[in-house]
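Bumping my old thread because nobody answered last time. Still need a sequence for this structure:
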């Protein structure tokens, strides 16, 4: 058995925001999933540090590129062609790499998706898109043999033309010491899914930052209603289904404001309105 590695370099725009100490900019994560060893490297631009503290060591930096390497053991790997007339002819190897390209590209794509989901929904960094990969050619992979020798430079960049956003609207910076284990846990989770209210809330944040106030406020209201009702009724409970049926038929109508005031007071013995009067007014607006 020998090892075959596939590497993808992904240019990021907007960049991911991380907090690290100067001189400790490297963030590398290694983990195993199924038969693959995955290594993700966050390439931090040391010249783009902002909000650096008084001792000039800790600051917020931008990750403008990810390197994702997927490796697994295979029966054999072909020999790297010897150079002829100053170049190498890889034509004879196309069929071999075509056999492995789909599985490697899928595992790299999934690793990338999980990273973006963590930064988008856990750290609330906007404009990141874990679904639309149309601008990226994940089938073009840089291949390496067991000894780390490169077969051919098949590097393709992935670019999103969206402005970088600094800390606002709940955006959190990735902190290596605090968030690294959480990110790793997310990467290892087999079923990384995002709740509907989280998706809509993220869309609302993106709309507000982009200046689309009408859509942003509407989606915040939808998120609020979903979250409140799921507090009282589990997502697929009989009570919840029955309430939705009666609500759809116009037989019963309870507003979000009633749920978080009178209903909550009766059910939980306290209400959101009493505990957070200012936030209650904002929800009322």
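Sorry it took so long. Here it is:
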């Amino acid at each position: 058995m020998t090892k075959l590695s596939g590497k993808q370099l992904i240019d990021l725009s907007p960049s991911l925001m991380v907090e690290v100490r100067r001189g400790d900019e490297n963030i590398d994560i290694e983990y195993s999933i199924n038969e693959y060893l995955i290594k993700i490297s966050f390439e931090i631009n040391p010249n783009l540090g902002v909000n650096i503290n008084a001792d000039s060591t800790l600051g917020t930096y931008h990750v403008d590129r990810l390197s994702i390497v997927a490796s697994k053991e295979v029966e054999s790997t072909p020999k790297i062609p010897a150079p002829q007339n100053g170049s190498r002819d890889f034509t004879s190897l196309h069929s071999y790499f075509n056999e492995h390209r789909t599985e490697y590209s899928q595992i790299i794509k999934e690793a990338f998706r999980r990273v973006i989901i963590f930064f988008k929904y856990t750290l609330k960094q906007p404009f990141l898109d874990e679904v639309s990969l149309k601008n990226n050619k994940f089938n073009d992979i840089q291949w390496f043999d067991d000894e780390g020798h490169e077969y051919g430079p098949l590097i393709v960049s992935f670019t999103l033309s969206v402005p970088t956003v600094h800390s606002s609207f709940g955006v959190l910076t990735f902190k290596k010491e605090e968030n690294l284990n959480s990110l790793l846990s997310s990467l290892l989770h087999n079923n990384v899914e995002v709740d509907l209210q989280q998706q809509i809330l993220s869309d609302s944040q993106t709309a507000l930052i982009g200046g689309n106030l009408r859509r942003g406020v509407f989606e915040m209201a939808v998120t609020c209603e979903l979250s409140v009702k799921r507090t009282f009724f589990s997502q697929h409970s009989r009570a919840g289904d029955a309430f939705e049926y009666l609500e759809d038929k116009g037989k019963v109508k309870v507003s979000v404001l009633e749920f978080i005031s009178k209903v909550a007071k009766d059910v939980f013995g306290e209400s959101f309105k009493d505990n957070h009067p200012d936030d209650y007014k904002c929800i009322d607006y």
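The chain has eight helices and seven strands. Let me know if any region looks off to you.
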